[in-house]
Design a protein that fits this description.
This protein has about 210 residues and is mainly alpha-helical. The chain has helices spanning about 1-20, 25-45, 50-60, 65-80, 85-95, 100-105, 130-160, 165-180, 185-200; strands spanning about 115, 120-125. It is about 75% helix and about 0% strand. A hairpin with a 7-residue loop joins strand 1 and strand 2 (about 120-125).
Length: about 210
């Protein structure tokens, strides 16, 4: 029953992402699901056929919705590309190199910038953690952040050995938050990081019955 409830909840989340045309989150979630399915099929080959049948039934039942979601994502990509992420990064770099202080230490948490990703409005955020850190904390802050993220790699590798499904499940939201989206500021990112670190220290994986 727990597995069914989790599957239904996951499907609802995917549906919400599709409705919001959140391309990055959808792509990463599908990739994670595919990798997890391949892991289970390799670990228990007899699951390969049920998994294929399940995906096939899902495609048949939701064929029109899946095609519609794909068309919406394609149209959004045609209209907006990657949402001016490169232009945003260039604006942050130009701002940072204007003074040695801003380059080394940033302009603090209240710093604002004319952001091309939101039509040139002066806002206090950017859409990627790297550009946000450079704006707020400068190069020294980015070095500290890099050291923190590097320290997370080893626990994740331990988790991948102990509990591959969970290790693969945390990758999409963390990859999106740390590299591609403003969700690095959200509470759920901290919760997922905490879950990963706690699970990595357990002798028995959370996904193991």
């Amino acid at each position: 029953m727990a597995a069914i409830a989790c599957a239904v909840g996951g499907a609802l989340c995917l549906g919400a992402l599709a409705g919001a045309v959140h391309r990055t989150a959808l792509g990463l979630a599908v990739l994670s699901l595919a990798l997890t399915a391949l892991w289970w099929a390799r670990r228990r080959p007899w699951l390969a056929l049920p998994l294929l049948l399940g995906f096939g039934l899902l495609a048949m039942a939701g064929g029109d919705a899946l095609v519609g979601a794909w068309q919406q994502a394609a149209e959004k990509t045609r209209l907006t590309g990657i949402n001016a992420r490169w232009e945003e990064a260039a604006a942050v770099i130009d701002h940072a190199v204007a003074t040695p202080w801003a380059l080394l230490f940033g302009d603090g948490w209240g710093a604002r910038i004319a952001n091309p990703a939101v039509g040139g409005w002066r806002v206090s955020y950017t859409h990627t953690l790297a550009s946000y850190s450079l704006l707020k904390t400068g190069l020294f802050g980015m070095i500290a952040l890099g050291a923190y993220l590097a320290a997370l790699v080893r626990p994740w590798c331990r988790l991948l050995t102990a509990d591959p499904p969970l290790a693969l499940a945390v990758v999409p939201p963390l990859l999106m938050a740390l590299c591609l989206h403003t969700s690095f500021k959200y509470l759920d990112t901290g919760v997922i990081l905490s879950l990963m670190l706690v699970a990595a220290e357990r002798r028995k994986g959370l996904s193991v019955p």
